[in-house]
Amino acid sequence: MITDAAEYRSTPVPHRTRRRALIAILAIVVLELIAGIWIFLARNPPAPQIDLPGLTVFSPPERLPKFDLVDHHGQPFANDRLRGHWTLAAFGYTSCPDFCPTTLAEMARLFKQPALSPEVAQAARFVFISVDPFRDTTEQLAAYVTYFNPDFLGLTGEPDRLQRLNHELDIPYGYADPETGEPIRDVLHKPVLDAYVVDHYSGLLFIDPQGRLVATLLPPFDLARTLRIY
User: Fold this and answer.
1) Spatial CA neighbour of 122 closest among 155, 152, 154, 84
2) Could you tell me which of 52, 6, 26, 24 has the C-alpha nearest to residue 206?
3) What backbone torsions phi and psi does residue 77 show, to the nearest 5 degrees?
4) I need a surface site. Which of 19, 70, 79, 154 has the fewest CB within 10 A?
């Protein structure tokens, strides 16, 4: 049935519908931005410094510190498993109420983007590194990351190894009381609280096929400026 244009214009759009539409638009913007940066970095090694708020490009790329984690299959995951493909990495935890599920949903859509060049898309991986090893078992991580994409990998490890990796990357994390905001500074032992929250790095890491850190991207994102760099 064709609706009369005047009648259509006079029909109010529900607030929830408008909000979902806005979220969908913002998600597309973020995906285009990340895809654009990814393509630019893949095509321009070593990449020059790009003037974009929130984006840091390392030229030359930086070698990642040695790490020893485990993936959600229970298999060892160290630096050598980053070689041979591009990797996007994010830190978080499966109990995260907002940033982490949003990021994984965006990554799931990103890996389906036709804008990605074939050479990047065919040799790309997304890894989600949990900084909550006390609650995020390999089973929990497996259920979480594969919900978004069966090819995503969840990583975890012993508390001291996670702390060392984050320290060497200069992206510390910590636990806090969700009611008071009081920080719990000891990340090597499980907090007494059952419902603690985790303050963690909210950016993305771009890692090249040699296992080197090429760039990091922090929110908020500026698509208009990104479109001018590639």
Assistant:
1) 84
2) 52
3) -135, 110
4) 19
Contact present, 34 and 110 (Cβ < 8 Å): yes
Q: Residue-wise over 111-120: b if at least 16 C-beta within 10 A, else e?
A: beeeebeeeb
Residues 181-226 have pLDDT tens digits of 899 889 999 999 888 999 999 888 988 888 999 888 887 654 444 4
Taking phi first (over 0 means left), then psi (-120 to 50 degrees means alpha), and beta for anything else, what does residue 172 get?
beta
The token pair that represents 84 in the structure block: 């041979």
Cα(16)–Cα(3) distance, integer angstroms: 22
Q: Is the peptide bond before 101 cis (omega within 30 degrees of 0)?
A: no
Helix, strand or coil for residue 184?
A: strand
CB 173 within 8 A of CB 199: yes
